[in-house]
Queue: 2 jobs
Job 1
Amino acid sequence: MLFTFDKDVLDEDEQTLSSYGIEEESRLEVEYSNMKIRDIGSLGLRFMDVSNSQGLKRREWSSTAPRWRRTRCGLCLEGKCTNSRCEAYNQIVIIPIGYKKFDVLLDSDDTTTVCPICKNYVQPSSCAFNNCWWRFEGRKLEANSNGRPPKKCSSEWTQVDDAYHYFEELKSGTVTWMQLILEAVKNKPV
């Protein structure tokens, strides 16, 4: 099986997608034996639907939280540790990001989104905020989009107080994000 784009075979591990001229909304082709499958779709990330503010919940601080559930002010990401040798294996861990702008699809890597215990990469699946002003912007695929383009969405600045503000999965749901930029700042933006 090979991935191709514009008749180029994408077979060099050291190369990035952009080095092949692949941009957002580009379509890759898969070649498998003598069969071609076109239009495998754009890449994206399954992540909490942060555009659904109904799911944003507030939780008071706990003095008994495990080490992998410790946070700091600003943005935090959450994901499951998959390292079977880690104390936090199969647990949802908190990845403190702090006060900054973070592109969830582009900035997540083995230096930024890691388990706080074993330091292995963790695929982020949700986010939370505390003691900050936050907002998001992105493009998401609607459920059953049937070929429709991703929907652009964003939020105004929202303030959260000294508690853990997280998205409850049953209320918010998860969607495929083609782009998701989260931003947290300490002071109210002007």
Job 2
Amino acid sequence: MRIRSTRLRHWLPFCLCALLGGQALAAASPATSPVTSESSMLDINRYQLLYSATGDDRFLERMGSAGKRFEASLQGRQDADALRALWSDYQQGSKKLLADLSAHKINQQSEMAQSLKLSETFDAYLQAHPQTAAPELADNLRTRALLTARLANLRKVDNSRADAEEQKIKALDASIQQQIAALAKADAALSSDLANRWHYLQISQSNGKLLLYPFNAQIESMLGKLQNH
């Protein structure tokens, strides 16, 4: 694991949170669960943005796994060739960004701005092909995770856009809480477990700043539990 030294000081006080988050992530093992192409696109964008916000190589590893799931999900899709082309462009852009970062050709703010631009590759496709069914809890959790990763970058790049993103998160949180509560009728134990994890991820903070790795780990754990029910 590599965490860029300039950001290490932000992570040292959070060892316990990171350990708990890592345990939750390992327990969930979502990489083995089948997900749709659209879900994988959300995941890939999230990990790219989480990496640019933290410098934590674990997010690059997660992005690689999400990429494999994405490739596997394309079998039988009519637009498979178009999506493979999008993914190829995305990978090239990500590799160039990492190379420029390693060569010190860009600073942290430029890295974040370019990551946000790169994520538009999949954003544009998803916006042009919206799902017709109402989003399920898993869909909203993935969206919440992506919005949070995007917000972490926007706060360093564009505060006005960050404020708008924060409003989206607040509205989405209300829907997620309602969906978790509604699960109690069918599975009280699952609803209680998800409610506890939802509470934990919202308080994974230090000095008012969200701890992104524990936050993401809880999202992964919640998704894993939903996929196993």
